[in-house]
């Protein structure tokens, strides 16, 4: 068949849904393709939903979206084998009428989002993989071929919202396949517990939730982090490390997750839970320097497929929704001005992304991925061990004068890292953080 659309959106994840929804709301004829059985069936996320970015698209989402708990408390734990040094922030201000962050379960959430997208008028074809981009004589992208008996569908623009592992764009030479040091492999389990047990263990009421994010010796010197998020009747527990670190080491994702679950700070939180799901997924972590070409003749790329992920702040879905929306607004604007979707005209999308918080944040941390990659042992092994030892030394009341304890702590840092090493680490972090 050769039905023609204003736009084809490949993928029904966060970015694809945001894009298709925005286009359809403005009356464009949109076809969305999703290789999964349903929207969301292939998607994995922690998951924290950042409400602000969704609210811009669906202002009344709180009415019927499947939200788990709103985040009341954030914990950052730096762990060694037996301990954790923690920073907790809990505020009753987060108990607001329209909370800012929620935990969600992506399969349920994506199904809801997709229903809203279809209600807006988008034609969604599930179990349909876009296998190839179709180009005209001038090399412009004019549609896609799908695995449905080699069907071809034509459109003015194709939006690649195919996620981190999207082969359509890389096969067509629009962007390179991410290198092993540009992606993390995350594994995640769902641990079911009665909601009252979760409330008691985390001192929560009703829909209040806690987020724990943890780094340290749990990643065995690899660049990575672990997490534990409270849902209504389950805990999402996971861990991700760079693929290149897994390649070069002997650890497996599952052995690390297992050790994390057995950690004395984590085990009591999971006690008695029933594990029902085990999933694995990649996370783009190359940062600003890994962002590929974002547009060309007849195509745009959004979300994870374009490496839009702020690994340090664990933001991905919000960048996906924002870039999906901005791609749609670009297409809408060109259409309104009767301008063809040439690369020159679609460059507007890059400008919009540049003007948004997305690129600001990506640029801010542009040197962070390289720093964490090259100094992973220092930041994920040495310092967590030193911090734990310092805290323990300070808290053990054993007749040793405080000044002596301080001196011993300082010596332990200098012995492990040396003065130039310590100063160098501080300067490197400050520079990458700027
Ligand atoms: P996806 O959501 O991956 O969607 C891509 C879709 O395209 C999929 O449905 C896929 O099946 C489909 N597809 C791919 N190729 C084709 C094809 N050829 N034809 C048809 N369909 C295709 N972000 C946060 O904001 N908060 C978090 O707490 C958080 N935690 C995370 C925890 C884990 C373990 C992981 C893995 C990620 C986490 N992220 C988090 C990141 C977040 O999940 C992603 O940034 C976000 O899902 C990206 O959306 P996307 O639409 O670009 O890609």
From TrEMBL:
Annotated transmembrane regions: none
Domain FixC-like C-terminal: 368-434
Family indicated by similarity: Belongs to the ETF-QO/FixC family.
Domain of life: Bacteria
Keywords in alphabetical order: FAD, Flavoprotein, Oxidoreductase
Keyword Membrane belongs to the record: no
The name this protein goes by in its record: Protein FixC
Pfam families on file: DAO, ETF-QO_FixC_C
Role summary: Could be required for the formation of a functional nitrogenase Fe protein. Probably accepts electrons from FixA/FixB and reduces a quinone. Part of an electron transfer system.
Gene3D superfamilies: FAD/NAD(P)-binding domain
Cofactor(s) listed in the protein's UniProt record: FAD
Domain FAD dependent oxidoreductase: 6-56
Gene Ontology MF annotations: FAD binding; oxidoreductase activity
InterPro entries: FAD-dep_OxRdtase, FAD/NAD-bd_sf, FixC-like, FixC-like_C
């Amino acid at each position: 068949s050769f039905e023609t659309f204003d736009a084809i959106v490949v993928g029904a994840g966060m970015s694809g849904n945001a894009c298709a929804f925005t286009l359809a709301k403005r009356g464009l004829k949109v076809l969305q393709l999703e290789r999964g059985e349903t929207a969301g069936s292939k998607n994995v996320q922690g998951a924290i939903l950042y409400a602000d970015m969704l609210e811009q698209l669906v202002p009344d989402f709180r009415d019927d979206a499947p939200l788990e708990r709103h985040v009341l408390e954030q914990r950052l734990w730096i762990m060694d084998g037996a301990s954790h040094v923690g920073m907790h922030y809990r505020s009753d201000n987060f108990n607001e009428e329209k909370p800012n962050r929620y935990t969600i379960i992506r399969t349920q959430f994506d199904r809801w989002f997709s229903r809203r997208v279809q209600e807006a008028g988008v034609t969604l074809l599930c179990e349909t993989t876009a296998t190839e981009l179709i180009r005209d004589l001038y090399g412009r992208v004019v549609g896609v071929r799908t695995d449905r008996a080699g069907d071809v569908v034509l459109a003015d623009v194709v939006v690649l919202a195919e996620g981190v592992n999207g082969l359509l764009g890389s096969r067509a030479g629009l962007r390179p396949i991410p290198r092993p040091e540009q992606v993390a492999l995350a594994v995640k389990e769902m641990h079911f517990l009665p909601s009252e047990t979760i409330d008691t263990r985390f001192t929560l009421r009703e829909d209040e939730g806690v987020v724990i994010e943890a780094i340290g010796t749990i990643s065995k010197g690899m660049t990575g982090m672990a997490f534990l998020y409270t849902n209504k009747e389950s805990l999402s527990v996971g861990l991700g490390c760079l693929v290149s670190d897994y390649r070069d080491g002997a650890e497996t994702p599952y052995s690390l997750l297992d050790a994390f679950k057995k950690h004395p700070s984590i085990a009591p939180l999971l006690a008695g839970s029933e594990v029902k799901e085990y999933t694995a997924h990649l996370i783009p972590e190359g940062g600003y320097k890994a962002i590929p070409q974002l547009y060309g003749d007849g195509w745009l790329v959004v979300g994870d497929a374009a490496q839009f992920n702020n690994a340090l702040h664990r933001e991905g879905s919000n960048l996906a929704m924002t870039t999906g929306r901005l791609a749609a607004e670009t297409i809408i604007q060109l259409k309104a001005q009767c301008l063809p979707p040439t690369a020159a005209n679609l460059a507007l999308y890059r400008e919009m992304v540049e003007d948004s918080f997305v690129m600001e944040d990506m640029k801010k941390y542009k040197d962070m991925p390289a720093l964490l990659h090259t100094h992973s042992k220092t930041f994920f092994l040495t310092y967590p061990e030193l911090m734990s030892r310092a805290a323990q030394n300070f808290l053990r009341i054993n007749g040793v004068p405080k000044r002596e304890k301080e001196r011993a702590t300082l010596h332990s840092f200098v012995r492990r890292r040396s003065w130039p090493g310590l100063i160098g680490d501080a300067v490197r972090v400050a520079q990458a953080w700027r």
